[in-house]
Amino acid sequence: MDKLSDYEKYILMVEGVRRVSSTMSAFYQFKELVTFIESCSKSDSDYIDYKGNSMKKPIDRNKALSLLSDIDRMRWNNEFKSLAFKLELELN
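User: That's the sequence. What structure does it adopt?
Assistant: Structure tokens below.
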């Protein structure tokens, strides 16, 4: 599995997930979501900068670390869709 590209890993992760697309466009939106989750995982602050705006973090540091672990294991978590919706990212 280590030889798979990030896109291939994404396809395997979303396979069978309803209302989540495996298109390249959805993948790029997911990559933006991953970057946001990584930012949340690096600070215990209640606020984060996103696209030049300060916003209250929708997840705490521990939840972000848990979500990153799910991504590493290519395991879908419905929290991804919830966060994407809050950030106005299209995964479908």
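The chain has a mean pLDDT of 95.
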